[in-house]
Amino acid sequence: MSKKASAVVIRMPASDKWFYRALDVILVFTMIVVIIPLWSTVTQSFRPNTFIGSNLEGMFLPPWKWSTAAYKALLGNNGFALAFFNSMKILIFGVVTSLILTIPMAYCLSIHSLPGRKILIAFVLIPYLFNVGLIPTYLVVNRVGLMNHLAAIYLPSAISTYNCLIMKGFFEGIPDSLKESARIDGAPEWYVLVRIILPLSKPIILTIGLFYGVSFWNNFLHAMLYLNENSLQPLPILLRNILIASGMNEFVEVNAFGDAPISAIKAASVFMSAIPMILAYPFIQKYFTKGTLLGSVKG
Questions:
Q1: Would you place residue 90 in the very low, low, confident or very high pLDDT band (cuts 50, 70, 90)?
Q2: What's the pLDDT score for residue 177?
Q3: For the segment 62-78, what is each residue's pLDDT rounded down to a tens digit?
Q4: What separation in angstroms does the CA of 163 have from each of 92, 158, 281?
Q5: What is d(CA 87, CA 81) in angstroms, rounded to the nearest whole number?
Q6: Angle at the Cα of 127 (from 122 to 128), degrees rounded to 5?
Q7: 109, 117 in Cβ contact below 8 A?
Q8: N or C: which end of the chain has fewer CB within 10 A?
Q9: pLDDT in tens, 268-289
Q10: At what angle do helices 14-45 and 262-273 cross, to 10 degrees?
Q11: Closest CA to 254 of 74, 46, 60
C-alpha cells in the first residue's frame, strides 16, 4: 500500500499577519518619502526657462515639455567637466589607496598569534576614540606639502578605523584551516593573504570600497581647506559655489552655465553628482549585506 506524503501547511498566526501588513505600510511610506524629493529634483532639472507655476505643478510637468538646457549647460561648461574629473580622480585614487592600506592592517589585526597584537589594536583604537582635531590635521597636511594637491583629500583619512575593524571581523570568520594548510606547505604570509584570503573576501572588499567611495565623493570640508586653486576644485565645491551664487544673486558662477534657469542648474548639478554612486550601488548591493554582517560578527 503506497503512502502519499501529505503536504504540511503552516498557517501564519494572525499577529504575524498584522505585523507584516504594518511593515508593508511603513516601507511604502518610506519609499514615498524618498521618491518625492528625488522626483522633485529630477523634474526641476528639466524645467524650461518659460515654466510658470508652483513646485507641485512642476512635479507633474509632462515629459514632452521638459527641457535639457540645464544638462547641456553643465556638460558643455569647462568648470563642471573639470570639477567632475577632479572628483573622479579623488574617488579612484582614494578608494585604491584606502583598500591597499586597510586590507593589510585588517589582516594583521585578525591574526591572534601576531606578537604585539593588543598594542597594535590599542594604537588603532585610541585615535578613533580621541580625535586629534582639525587644526593639528591641517598643520600636518601643510607641513608635509599636500596643500593644493588632490591627495590631501584622501591621504589624511586613507584608513578608517571603523572600516578596518569590519574587515578584521570578516577575516577572522575565514576558517583557520585554510590559512594553516598554506603555512604548513611553506607559503609566506603575503601569499596567504593574496592567494587565499582576498579571493574569499570579495563581499567585504566591495562593501568597504563603497564606504570609502561615498566618503571621498562627498568630501567637502577637506576640499575647502586644502584646495585653494580653482583648477583643483571637486564637484562638491563647485556645487557649493553655484548654490551661494544663486542664493546671493551673484551670477558670476551661474551665468557661466548659459541661459538655463538657475533652479534647473542647481537640480541638475545635484542629480548628476549622485550618478556615479547610483550606478555603482546596484553592482555592489548583493555583496553589501553579506559583507557588513559577516564583518561585524566578530569584534
A1: very high
A2: 80
A3: 777 888 888 887 777 77
A4: 18, 11, 18
A5: 10
A6: 90
A7: yes
A8: N
A9: 888 888 888 777 777 776 666 5
A10: 130
A11: 74
